[in-house]
Amino acid sequence: MKIARRTLLRSTGVAIALPFLDVFQGDRSLAACVDTEHYPAADDKRRFIAINVGLGLHAPNFIPESSGRDYALPPYLKSLGSLRDRFTLISGASHPSVDGGHHSSKSFLTCAPHPGNAGFRNSISLDQFLAQRMGSATRFASVSLTEIGPGLSWSQSGVEIPSESRPSRLFQRMFLAGNAKEQAIQMEKIRGGRSVLDAVLARTQSLDSLVSGRDKEKLDQYFSAVREAEQRLAKDEDWQTKPRPKVDAKIPQDVPETTRIAERMTLMYDMMHLALESDSTRLLTYFINGFNQVPQIPGVVIDYHNLSHHGKDPEKLAQLAIIEQRLVDCLAGFLKKLSESQEDSGSLLDRTTVLFGSNLGNASSHDTKNMPILLAGGDFSHGQHLAFDANNNYPLPNLFVSILQQMGVETDSFGSSKGTMTGLEH
C-alpha cells in the first residue's frame, strides 16, 4: 500500500516531519547507532571544543616542513609560539570516504562518508557523542556556534543541531533569567513543545500496520530523534528553576557586518571563554564558514571565497594569508586566555581539549585530503608535529577515539575508526 507523505503530515496536526519511508515512495539510508554505555564522572570537568575553518588553511603557511618536536614554526603559528608545548600539529590525515568539497563540513565531526551524495544521511558528531555521556552536568549539554548558516553538530539521528551566530543571544541564554513573567512564558513553551512531541509519537504509532520491516526501522530512528528532543526539553525544564551564574561581564554588542570577521570571532571566543569559565557547558563547536564578501581587513580587496580558490596566484595567496593569519591570531588569543584562567585543578586549557582545523586540505581545488589539524590543551603531551603520509592519508577518526578516551569515555571506535591515533602522547 502506498500513501502520500503530505497527507499524513496534515493528519498529525503538528509541524514535525516524518522521515521518508518506502511507503511514501521515498528512501534514505540509516545513520549508525552508537553505544551509550560508558559515562565519565559528573564532577570531572573535562571540556571539548571543535573549531572548523570552512574555507581551508593554506598548508605551506600552517604545516611545518619537518616532523617531530624540533620543527620550525610556520608563518601562521608564530603568534602561538609561547604555547608551543601546549599543542600538537597533525598533517597527512583525513576522513576516509569523505568527499564533496564544501559539503565535507557536514562530516567534520561525524566522519560520515560521501556528504555530497543526494542520499546522504549524517551520523552523530563527536561533541554530541560526548553530550550523551556528560551533558547532564551543565545547564547546556552543548553549544553549537557559527558565523553564518549551519553549524558542526549533529544528533544521533543525523539531525542538525541548531546553531547560534549572535554572541548577545548566547549571553542572554547563559546568564539572564528574565523576570517572573518571562520565565513563566519560557516554561510554558518548553511544556508546550513536549506536548507536541507526545502527540506526534501517539499519532504515528498507527503506521505500524501499514509499513514494511525496513520502514519500521526508519520509524524507530525517527522516534529516537523525537525522544532526543524530549530529553532536551525535559533537561531545559529542570534547569529553568535553577539560578544562572553571575559573571563580571556585560551583554556583548553584536557585530552585524559579516565582513568584520576578526571582531566577530573575538566576540565569539569571549563568549566561549565565559561559557567554560561559568561551567554553563563543557562542549562547544564553532564553524567559521567564510563568505563571498571582502573582509574588512587592511590589505584585502578580493572576496574571501574567491581568495580561497587562489589557483596559486601570488596576489590572491598574499591576501588570503592576511585573512588566515587573523583567524589563527584570534585562536591564539583564545588559547592564551584559557591558559591564563585558573581553577582548582589548573588552567582551563589544562582541562579543555581544543580541536582546530578545516574540512578542506586544499580549498582551491575542494580537496578533502590532508586536512590541517591543530590539537591543543587537555591531558595530551604536546609539542610535536605528527606528519603522516600525504599520499596515503592516516584515518583522522582515530584522533576522535583518542579524544574520547582522554575525555573519560571508554570506547575503541568512532565513525570509521577502530583505534586511537598513532604517536599522540598522553
Can you summarize this structure?
By secondary structure, the protein is of the alpha/beta class. It has helices spanning 5-12, 59-62, 126-134, 167-175, 180-204, 213-240, 261-277, 304-308, 314-340, 397-406; strands at residues 47-53, 87-91, 93-94, 143-146, 283-288, 342-343, 346-347, 352-357, 373-377, 385-387, 394-395.
How does this model look, in words?
By secondary structure, this protein is α/β, with parallel strands linked by helices. 33% of the residues lie in helices and 10% in strands. The protein has ten helices and eleven strands. The strands form three sheets. A seven-stranded mixed β-sheet has the order 4-5-1-8-9-2-10, sandwiched between helices. Strands 3-11 form a two-stranded parallel ribbon. A two-stranded antiparallel sheet has the order 6-7. A hairpin with a 2-residue loop joins strand 6 and strand 7. Helix 4 runs parallel beside helix 7 (261-277). The longest helix is centred in the middle third of the chain and has 28 residues, at 213-240. The protein is globular. It starts with a helix and ends in a 20-residue tail after the last helix. Residues 1-39 have low confidence and may be disordered.
